[in-house]
């Protein structure tokens, strides 16, 4: 099946222009994807073979830790090496922020007009799961466009934000000297996703202490894939530690390149992505079915009267979908 077959002529022209290097076409396509336009799937399907070459770096950490300042510094470093860079700022807390505030929020003002830098911000619409998915789709567009390094900034270190970051090949966790309690509370989650730790605002007291504490925590955890995350102290505002952070990323990249680790890492993400999409497609089909919708609506009333539990209703609806004519097979084999 050609998903591209149904894509409108206007959107096809955008795709051709984008793949030919037109950044305005890229921006328009991102909007199409963000808006869940019916053409989005076909467009993404078409550009997919052209993507995959870019290194994707997630940058996450608590609000105000200096992620954007660090990202801006990294962008300057990468641009100085002649690399083409994409930046995606994902803000799970804001329902709308597209374009306008961006240069400011991302602290890349002085780089505006650079044709080899593309910056985009994305805000929450609907669930964070949806945001994570759209982020990956947008990264595919940037990747197909030919940006060799994509930096994805996400605010927060709650579990769901970690999901956004975990779709990247390398994840930088940015903390500050005051993050001790956060590290304590989120130890396992941080160790699971952090490939490089940056203690920013090292111009403030307590930086040495948290650097030492992080190293302790890292050493106490089994190395993931044989990698012990380096801890870099930084004063991003003054550009200090930025080169070290980039260097740590280069080393992590080399580590991933060896022994097929990159593929292994991407395999897990891709599998989950496909599973989520299958569920979504099935869900759209099922919940669009009038009989199923009616059954759920009636069940909800019973649940509110405590005559039925949501657990039982969900099971019954699912079983009913699997064998619609009441020819019920054994409910839960195995
Ligand atoms: N003292 C100090 N301040 C810094 C440093 N780096 C950044 N800042 C300041 O910290 C504030 C937040 O910086 P951002 O880069 O916007 O932080 P962020 O993590 O991107 O913030 P959100 O995206 O809003 O979560 C700004 O006022 C920066 O100027 C640093 O190394 N030392
Ligand atoms: Mg920011």
Features:
334 residues, 7-stranded parallel sheet, 13 helices, globular, binds magnesium ion
Percentage of residues assigned to helices:
40-55%
Instruction: Give me the oligomer status.
Output: single chain
Distance between the ends: 35 Å
Strand order of the largest sheet: 3-2-4-1-5-6-7
Shape: globular
Strand content: 5-15%
* Low-confidence sequence ranges: 97-103, 327-331
**Major sheet:** 7 strands, parallel
Radius of gyration, CA atoms, in whole angstroms: 23 Å
Run of helices and strands:
HHHEHEHEHEHEHEHEHHHH
Say which molecules are bound, naming each kind only once.
guanosine-5'-triphosphate, magnesium ion
Number of helical runs? 13
Structural class: alpha/beta
The average pLDDT is: 87
Number of strands: 7
What would you say this structure looks like, in words?
The chain is of the alpha/beta class. It contains 13 helices and seven strands. Residues 67-68, 105, 153 line the site of magnesium ion.
């Amino acid at each position: 099946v050609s998903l591209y077959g149904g894509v409108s002529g206007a959107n096809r022209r955008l795709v051709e222009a984008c793949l030919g290097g037109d950044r305005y076409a890229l921006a328009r396509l991102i909007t199409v994807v963000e808006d869940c336009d019916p053409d989005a799937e076909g467009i993404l399907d078409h550009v997919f073979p052209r993507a995959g070459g870019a290194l994707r770096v997630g940058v996450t950490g608590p609000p105000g830790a200096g992620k954007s300042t660090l990202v801006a510094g990294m962008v300057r470093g990468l641009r100085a090496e002649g690399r083409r860079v994409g930046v995606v700022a994902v803000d799970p807390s804001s329902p709308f922020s597209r374009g306008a505030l961006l240069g400011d929020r991302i602290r890349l003002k002085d780089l505006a007009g650079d044709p080899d830098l593309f910056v985009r911000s994305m805000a929450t619409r609907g669930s964070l799961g949806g945001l994570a998915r759209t982020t990956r789709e947008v990264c595919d567009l940037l990747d197909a466009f030919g940006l060799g390094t994509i930096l994805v900034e996400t605010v927060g270190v709650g579990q769901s934000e970690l999901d956004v970051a975990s779709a990247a090949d390398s994840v930088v966790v940015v903390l500050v000297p005051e993050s001790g309690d956060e590290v304590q509370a989120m130890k396992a989650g941080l160790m699971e996703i952090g490939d490089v730790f940056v203690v920013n605002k090292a111009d403030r007291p307590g930086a040495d202490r948290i650097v030492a504490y992080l190293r302790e925590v890292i050493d106490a955890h089994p190395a993931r894939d044989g990698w012990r995350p380096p801890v870099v102290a930084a004063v991003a505002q003054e550009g200090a530690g930025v080169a070290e952070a980039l260097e740590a990323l280069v080393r992590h990249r080399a580590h991933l390149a060896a022994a097929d680790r990159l593929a292994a890492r991407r395999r897990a993400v891709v599998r989950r992505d496909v599973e989520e999409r299958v569920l979504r497609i099935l869900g759209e089909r099922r919940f669009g079915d009038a009989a199923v919708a009616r059954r759920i609506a009636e069940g909800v009333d019973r649940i509110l009267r405590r005559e039925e539990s949501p657990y039982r209703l969900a099971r019954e609806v699912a079983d009913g979908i699997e064998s619609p004519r009441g020819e019920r097979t054994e409910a839960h084999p195995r």
